[in-house]
Amino acid sequence: MTVPAIADATGNRPARTQLLKALGPGLVTGAADDDPSGIATYSQVGAQFGYGLAWVMLFSYPLMAVTQAISAHIGLVTGRGIAQNIRRHYPRWLLQIVVLLLLVANVANLGADLGAMGAALQMLVGGPVLVYTAGFAVLSLLLEVFLSYQRYAAILKWLTLALFSYVAVVFAVRVPWGEALYDTLVPTLKLDSDHAMALVAVLGTTISPYLFFWQASQEVEEQLRRTVKPLYVTPSGPS
């Protein structure tokens, strides 16, 4: 039996409830970085090099976390997304180039994600990959258009629980922990085309361009939903 959380004598909600409410843009954006195309990239690199590039994780994670934090603060402080801030402070031609590059990167990333989802469904139930890919595209589009931000964000939060499947895999397969830890802590970099391409692929899919824009935009949406003013208007934050 689950006991519902209630407010204390001062009217404040329990810390557990406050923590769950605080999980929002950062959780969703971080989970989105483990997209199907990213998992496919990591799997291919692992199949080709084993644990030889595991050390990249020690460098890519701090870079990703810092980039995500900077993007979040841009949205929180200014109350605008990254594209809007570029438009306000830089020439119009620079904004057009950045948005064009983002569009190309996002279209390619979306295509890879949808294709990977269609291929995964085919492995489970069989059938045509293209039909499944198109179905996922239509479903995603309908959710974006017809659901409110609050409802859609709540769905995305629950979907992040799927990441625990990665933890289950660790316990389901035999991992040579000695080799894995050694290759993670002791970098081995080979200067050849295969390792260079793998390194670029891992860093590119880990620190994806859409993360910057998505994180800042979601922080702005959260402010609008909670009717909170940007920090440049209320430096002390919401009361």
Keyword list:
239 residues; mainly alpha; 12 helices; 72% helix
What can you tell me about this protein's structure?
Helix 4 runs parallel beside helix 11 (193-206) and helix 6 packs across helix 7. This protein has one domain (36-225). It starts with 14 loop residues before the first helix and ends in a 14-residue tail after the last helix. With 239 residues, the chain is an all-alpha fold. The model is unreliable at 1-11 (pLDDT under 50). It is built from 12 helices and no strands. The longest helix is centred in the middle third of the chain and has 34 residues, at 92-125.
What layout of secondary structure does this protein have?
Elements lengths: L14 H8 L2 H8 L3 H14 L6 H23 L3 H8 L2 H34 L3 H18 L2 H11 L4 H9 L4 H9 L7 H14 L2 H17 L14
Summed up, what is this model?
The protein is mainly α and 239 residues long. The protein has helices at residues 15-22, 25-32, 36-49, 56-78, 82-89, 92-125, 129-146, 149-159, 164-172, 177-185, 193-206, 209-225. It has one domain.
Give me the number of helical elements: 12
In percent terms, what proportion of residues is strand?
A: under 5%
| Low-pLDDT regions | 1-11
Radius of gyration: 21 Å
What is the oligomeric state here? single chain
Envelope shape? globular
SSE arrangement, N to C:
HHHHHHHHHHHH
- Percent in helix: over 70%
Termini Cα gap: 35 Å
Output the structural class.
mainly alpha
